[in-house]
Design a protein that fits this description.
The protein has about 500 residues and is α/β, with parallel strands linked by helices. It has 15 helices and 22 strands. The strands form six sheets. Strands 1, 2, 3, 4, 5, 6 and 22 form a seven-stranded parallel β-sheet that branches. The chain has a five-stranded mixed barrel with strand order 17-18-19-21-20. The longest helix has 24 residues. The structure holds S-adenosylmethionine and iron/sulfur cluster. The site of iron/sulfur cluster has 10 residues, from helix 6.
Length: about 500
């Protein structure tokens, strides 16, 4: 090597399937590997290490990973030194099945063991032997033992790893103790554990120093967050929001996902009273039929969900609420489904994510109830529910026409990405999590702007930047960012 040549760094490629928690895990894993000398590539053909961060919530997500593994098999054949790792939820749940279907996989690492990845990659490269790191199953030991085997993975943050350095996820809770009968999460992510508030606040400060203006707090049932200090003091989510609100330079705080039964008044009051906290609550209802909710073991009735919804809207004027629904759950009759349709019609959610039930081996629902709703019925119910939701979303959006929305600019919209020129379509989100698109210079990314809304579709608000703000009247332009290699979310 001549003095002017820099050493060739090994490359890591990562594909991520699933939720925001997985996106955060991938960001952190790559940051840790970068510290170990790796650089990120978005070209699998040039990778020395290839990671698949997986999801097990629905069968479709697992199929995606197996087909990706099939696609890369020839690369491994060509280059046996290539390290292939399967990490995350599927790894925790199906280690043997993965090695059975893709014997060339070198590394299987569960959600609670991600901190070990750099060391495991080194071990594979040194020995050529497969490496496994998995946490205990929920019944493999006492609560403390199982908890200890699922470590919250929160290493130092690297802003380079985020598509937009002004937004960041912060994990405040790992695991889940709700055990909804259809869901794999309590086994793939282990027992519910809340992180120490001091660590969360320090992490938020670091993120702000690195340029973050908005943090999204993540937890499976984020509103059940409570940290017991062991001396009689407890920090609830409302207390944590108040502490984060005091972080100078932080402009916005969001949190997802909420569990309906844990929606306390102190939390709603914090959302109302703290100006930086988004007036937005994602609170999945899953079904509008009591019998289904009972089978799902959701721990609330339809009336209780409505009580929570009315209370939220009363205490937090203007709050936007969104939901998730599962259609075609075991035993869902046309009558049960009609109740869900009515709920979606009446509840006026900002938006809803609608999923066809996917039977997950190992769950209580798979053990107890036959997956008896035909695929075409699931599909039809999915479309029907979506149509009702879309009509409501359009009505909600039309009410914004003629109003202003204060948005954090997230970057180019999909249309903007395809266009050329200095002024292209940008996308931002309002304090109520509404998506707003408008024309502007990409350099406005990461700024707060006021948009005059002049049109609406079921998914998007359209508007123009309030005069004066495009020129950066506040002088808050974010410097143009170098081209980043993105994390692949599929
Ligand atoms: N913890 C969150 C909650 O309780 O709402 C979300 C967890 S899950 C990753 C996200 C959504 O996936 C759930 O709200 C549910 O609607 C859906 N989901 C979970 N298991 C499912 C299954 N077996 N089939 C279809 N959808 C499922
Ligand atoms: Fe799954 Fe229910 Fe826990 Fe959400 S609350 S992660 S749906 S078990």
């Amino acid at each position: 090597m001549t003095p002017t040549e820099s050493p060739v760094r090994p490359r890591v490629y990562i594909e991520t399937v699933g939720c925001q928690m997985n996106v955060l895990d991938s960001e952190l894993v790559v940051a840790a590997l970068k510290k170990d000398g790796y650089e990120l590539t978005d070209d699998p053909a040039t990778a020395d290490v290839m990671l698949f961060n997986t999801c097990s919530v629905r069968e479709h997500a697992e199929d995606k990973t197996y087909s990706a593994l099939g696609r890369v098999a020839p690369l491994k054949k060509q280059d046996p030194a290539l390290v292939i790792g399967v990490i995350g939820c599927m790894a925790q749940k199906d280690q043997e099945a993965i090695r059975g279907r893709a014997p060339y996989v070198d590394m299987v690492v569960g959600t609670g063991q991600l901190a070990k990845i750099p060391e495991l990659v080194r071990a594979v490269r040194a020995t050529g032997k497969p490496q496994y790191a998995l946490s205990l199953g929920r019944t493999d030991g006492g609560r403390h033992e199982v908890e200890a085997s699922f470590e919250s993975y929160d290493p130092a943050r690297d802003p380079e790893m985020r598509p937009n350095s002004s937004q960041a996820f912060v994990r405040i809770q790992i695991g889940c103790d709700k055990f909804c009968t259809y869901c794999v999460v309590p086994s793939t992510r282990g027992p519910e554990q809340s992180r120490h508030p001091d660590h969360i606040v320090s992490e938020a400060r670091v993120l702000v120093d690195q340029g973050a203006k908005e943090v999204t707090l993540l937890g499976q049932t984020v509103n059940s967050y409570v940290f017991d200090h062991g001396d009689g003091r407890r920090t609830r989510l409302s207390d944590l929001l108040a502490r984060l609100h005091d972080v100078d330079g932080l402009g916005r705080i969001k949190f997802v996902t909420n569990f309906p039964k844990d929606m306390t008044n102190d939390l709603l009051d914090a959302v109302r009273d703290l100006p930086k906290v988004c007036k937005y609550l994602h609170v999945p209802a899953q079904s509008g039929c009591d019998e289904m909710l009972k089978r799902m073991k959701r721990l609330y009735t339809v009336d209780e969900y409505w009580e929570m919804l009315h209370r939220a809207r009363e205490r937090v004027p203007g709050v936007a609420v969104s939901s998730d629904f599962i259609v075609g759950f075991c035993g869902e009759t046309e009558d049960s489904f009609a109740k869900t349709m009515r709920m979606v019609e009446d509840a006026r959610f900002k938006n809803s994510f609608i999923f066809k039930y996917s039977e997950r081996p190992g769950t209580k629902a798979a053990e107890r109830f036959p997956d008896d709703i035909p695929e075409e019925v699931k599909r039809r119910r999915n479309q029907d529910l979506l149509a009702v939701q879309n009509a409501n979303s359009l009505t909600d959006h039309q009410q914004w026409i003629g109003r202003e929305a204060r948005v954090l600019v997230e970057g180019l919209s999909r249309q903007g990405q395809k266009a050329a020129g200095p002024v292209r379509q940008l996308l931002g989100r309002s304090l109520t999590d509404h998506i707003v698109v408008f024309d502007g210079n990409e350099r406005l990314t990461g700024n707060f702007l006021t948009i005059d809304v002049n049109d609406a579709s079921p998914f998007t608000l359209y508007g123009t930047v309030r005069t004066g703000e495009t020129q950066g009247a506040t002088g808050e332009y974010t410097a143009p960012r170098p081209k980043r290699v993105g994390l692949q979310v599929v």
